[in-house]
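URGENT: need a sanity check before tomorrow's submission.

F., can you look over the Mitochondrial glycoprotein record below? I want to be sure the sequence and structure line up before it goes out.
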Amino acid sequence: MALFAAARRAAVSAAPLLLRASASSGANRGAALLRPLAAVAARPQPRAMPFSSAPATRPSSDAELLSVIESEIKYAEDCDDHDRVEEIPENFPFKITDEKGTNAVTLKRSYHGEQIEIVAHMPSLVTGDEPDHDRDDEEKGEEGDSDDDAGEKPLQSSVPLTVTITKGDGPVLEFTCTAYPDEVLIDSLSVSQPSGDDEADLIAYEGPDFNDLDENLQRAFHKYLELRGISPLTTNFLHEYMINKDSREYLLWLRKMKDYFKQ
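C-alpha cells as predicted:
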C-alpha cells in the first residue's frame, strides 16, 4: 500500500513536467511551421504599377529634333524649286510619268514600232561648294600641270538614265547613261532575250565596256539614241526637271518625318 502510494505520488509529480514538456514541444513545432509564413509576410512585396492610358511624355531629344525638322521645312518652303512647274518644250516626244514619293521619273514613247522607255533617277548635284583639295595641292606643286587642268571640263550636275528599247517580244536593248545638261554619255549597253529564267538572265554576257568599243561604233550608238529622242532637248529638260523633283521629294520627306515625331 505504501509502495503504491509512493508510485502514485511520483506519477502525479511527474505529470506537470510531462505536460510542460509536451506543451513546449508543440509550441516549438508550431513556431517552426509559422516561421516561414512570417518570413514571407515580412518580405517586401513588389509595388503594383498603376495603369494609365495617358500618353508618355515625349523625350526632350525628340522635341529638339522636331524643332530642327520644322526649321528645315520652313527653309525648304521658302525656296522656289519645290513648287516650280516645269514647262514641257514643244515637240517633246515623251510622255512623262512622275509619282510622288518615288526617286525616279519614267518617260515613254513609240518610234517606228519600237517601245522606248527612259527611267531618270535622282540627280547627282554639284553645288560649287565641294572642297577641291587635290587642285590646291597641284597648284602648290609643279607648274606644268596647270595646262592639263585648264583643258578639263568643270564639274556639272548629272542625271543617271536607263534607256530600254524593245521590239514586240524580241530582244531588249538597254543603255545605262549619264545625262549632263548638253550631252549624254553612254556608260554601258547590253542586249538580251528575256527567257523567264532569272538565273540564266543573271549570268548572261552583257558585252564589253562601252569605252573599249571602236570610236566609230561608239559614235553610231550615240546617233542611234539621238534619233530616238535622247537628245540635248530631252536631257536639258530632264536635268532641270529632276533637280526640281529632288527639292519636292525632300520637302515631302521632311513633312513625313515631322508627322512621325509629332505622334
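My own read: DSSP finds seven helices and six strands in the chain. Confidence is low (pLDDT under 50) at residues 1-41, 137-142. If you see anything odd, call me.
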